[in-house]
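Operator note (shift B, R.M.): manual run for AccD requested after the automated queue skipped it. Running by hand, logging everything below so the morning shift can see what happened. Input copied straight from the record, untouched. If output looks odd, do not overwrite the archive copy; leave it for review.
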Amino acid sequence: TIQKLLYVSILTSPTTGGVTASFGMLGDIIIAEPKTYIAFAGKRVIEQTLSKAISKNSQVAEYLLHKGFVDSIVPRHLLKGVVTELFQFHNFFSLAKNERN
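Run finished. Output pasted below as returned.
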């Protein structure tokens, strides 16, 4: 059987274009640094496409957290500890699942 591995995306500023769509937003858990600029397209392109103005903060990590596109905002100096805990937590439940089979 093919096991699905945990995929954690860590977004730093700027995360734009194809990286956002191809890698950044595909994670099982998406972490961003504070105030990270995250966008597939620029503000002007979005406004022209939608024919309406968008908020200047709509492409900032805190707004995307509020809308559910980002799971957590973690300052860089805390990332190592947070990612370590996530992997340990995931490993614990993966082992428990394997023991049941």
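Quick read of the result: The CA atoms of residues 12 and 58 lie 16 Å apart. Residues 8-100 form a domain with the 2-enoyl-CoA Hydratase; Chain A, domain 1 fold (CATH 3.90.226.10).
Leaving this for review. - R.M.
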